Amino acid sequence: MFFAALFAMYFTLRSTSPDMWATETEKLNVPFALANTIVLVLSSVTCQFGVFAAERLQPRRTGGLLNVARWGMVEWFILTFIMGAVFVSVQAFEYTMLVSEHVSLSSDAYGSSFYLTTGFHGLHVTGGLIAFLFIIGRAYIAKRFGHFEATSAVVVSYYWHFVDVVWIALFFIIYFLK
Asked: What is the DSSP letter of 67?
């Protein structure tokens, strides 16, 4: 519901200022944002591989570090965490580029809606990263990795996939919808 309200705000402001949207969206670096989007979408793939390992009750790798086929949930979730952290870092870098183009939270309706929608998404991604740290830590602390730990990993993956789907919608609306 929260993101639905953000989408409603975005479309309402956009409909009242179409000329502003036309000029401001030209400042967006679409290839840069697309590459960042690909990183986030691929992090959903690595997250799901971690879930598969958790469902096998395999918390950690059973082979060498480079033997990806033998990775456990922890290794897949660490890779997912790294990819999510890269996404947030690149998004922060994109913010600095836009601020240098005079697009800020307080510059106009476009800046406000852009930073509110993408910023709240970034906060949700950061929350997911914290959840991954808890799940990874729990896998190391647990004396026996069982169904309770596996279920926790699955629940975090649902959240992560949801955050990815929301970003795909945001990305399409902000960067491509004319």
From this structure: -
